[in-house]
Amino acid sequence: MGNVVSAVDKFHPSAGRQERFLRAAHALLEQADQAYRVGDLGLALEYAYQAALRAAGARLTCAPQLTRRRRLPSSAWDKLELLDAASREWARSFRAFSRLRSHVGSGVISVPPRAEVDKLMALARHYLTVIELGDGVGEAA
Fold it and tell me: Which of 57, 82, 56 has its CA nearest to residue 70?
């Protein structure tokens, strides 16, 4: 039996990839919520950060500016900064959590501050909504 290819994937391959990124972002935010509810703030932070990365990935799949560049940065946040002023602000907002994420992941910090986890989860959720409603065009929180 052959593979089924949706019309969206066939005629607009970036739209299919964008949809997969968006679904993954939603799933990761749900996992962040579950981890938060049981008090695992480190895991909630990680899942929220990963959700933000997937939302950025969704934004990047539909960015024609990136297809014309030869040497793209490897960081999603660096790529996002290349798009426009709003995307630059989003990238800076999320990059601010990178060090905390790294410290929690390496055990330097055992439990991240609840306020920071709350902030990241809200920011990731808001960014995902912006991407879904306006293809990433919008003011950073």
Answer: 82
